């Protein structure tokens, strides 16, 4: 399995031997990598049938579930060291409630999401007058799975509202590579945000 660069960044934040839950785990690439390199144990939650099959083929423990239904049917409080959600938060009906659930079942959370505040997105709305389409947001407004797009400032305000303390933030481009220049003005220059947080 090829590893996305943002997965390599996330891997650096994971303590060896940790218990990990990956929400919207896709084909299980991240969990597979963490198991091989960090000796983690854990589960993925995924809704797509084809991705479930890929997880099983790669020996990743996976549960088929709709994240909008929450995690209470599967996990008790403090079941995991880390709860990870990559490129999924913006597709949830109630991302605020899912953030609460992440903090209920995990000691730390890690999320990635496309930054609606990126200058190219702003420019498309201001000048072209239409919803942005980019490498980080490749869908048109009518077929997108993204229903709650946000900026870095929006997410940080949500963390404050939910009593979460941000431990680390990194910004990457649409190819999931770290961008040092974007760190100067992250809300304006970053295409994708990567956050690590815990309960305050």
- SSE order: HEHEHEEHEHHEHE
* Helix proportion: 25-40%
How would you sum up the global shape?
A: globular
Output the CATH homologous superfamily: Vaccinia Virus protein VP39
Mean pLDDT: 91
Estimate nothing, just give the exact number of structural domains: 1
CATH architecture: 3-Layer(aba) Sandwich
Alpha carbon gyration radius: 16 Å
CATH topology (level 3) name: Rossmann fold
> What's the arrangement of strands in the largest beta sheet?
3-2-1-4-5-7-6
Unreliably modeled segments = none
Taken as a percent bin, the fraction of beta residues is 15-25%
According to CATH, what is the class? Alpha Beta
Distance between the termini: 36 Å
What's the tally of helices? 7
* Strand tally: 7
- Summing up helix and strand content along with how strands pair, one would put the structural category as alpha/beta
Describe the main β-sheet briefly. 7 strands, mixed
Give the SSE map.
Elements: H1 5-12, E1 19-23, H2 29-38, E2 41-46, H3 49-57, E3 62-64, E4 80-86, H4 95-105, E5 106-114, H5 119-128, H6 152-161, E6 164-172, H7 186-189, E7 192-199
Parallel strand pairs: 1-2, 1-4, 2-3, 4-5
Antiparallel strand pairs: 5-7, 6-7
Question: What does the model show?
Answer:
Strand 4 (80-86), helix 4 (95-105) and strand 5 (106-114) form a beta-alpha-beta unit. A 7-stranded mixed sheet has the order 3-2-1-4-5-7-6, sandwiched between helices. The N and C termini lie far apart (36 Å). The protein is α/β, with parallel strands linked by helices and 200 residues long. 31% of the residues lie in helices and 24% in strands. The chain contains 7 helices and 7 strands, in the order αβαβαββαβααβαβ. The protein is globular. It has helices spanning 5-12, 29-38, 49-57, 95-105, 119-128, 152-161, 186-189; strands at residues 19-23, 41-46, 62-64, 80-86, 106-114, 164-172, 192-199. It has one domain: 3-Layer(aba) Sandwich (Rossmann fold). The mean pLDDT is 91.
């Amino acid at each position: 399995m090829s590893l996305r660069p943002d997965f390599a960044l996330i891997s650096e934040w994971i303590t060896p031997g940790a218990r990990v839950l990956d929400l919207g785990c896709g084909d299980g690439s991240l969990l597979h990598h963490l198991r091989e390199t960090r000796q983690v144990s854990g589960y993925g939650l995924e809704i797509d049938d084809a991705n479930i099959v890929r997880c099983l083929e790669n020996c990743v423990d996976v549960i088929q579930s709709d994240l909008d239904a929450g995690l209470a049917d599967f996990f008790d409080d403090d079941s995991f060291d880390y709860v990870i959600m990559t490129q999924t938060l913006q597709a949830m009906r109630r991302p605020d409630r899912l953030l609460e659930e992440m903090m209920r079942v995990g000691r730390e959370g890690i999320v990635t999401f496309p930054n609606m505040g990126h200058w190219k997105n702003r420019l498309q709305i201001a000048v072209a007058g239409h919803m942005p389409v980019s490498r980080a947001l490749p869908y048109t407004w009518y077929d997108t799975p993204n229903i709650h797009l946000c900026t870095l400032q929006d997410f940080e305000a949500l963390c404050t509202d939910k009593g979460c303390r941000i431990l680390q933030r990194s910004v990457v481009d649409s190819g999931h590579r770290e961008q040092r220049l974007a760190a100067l003005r992250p809300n304006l220059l970053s295409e994708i945000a990567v956050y690590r947080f815990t309960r305050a």
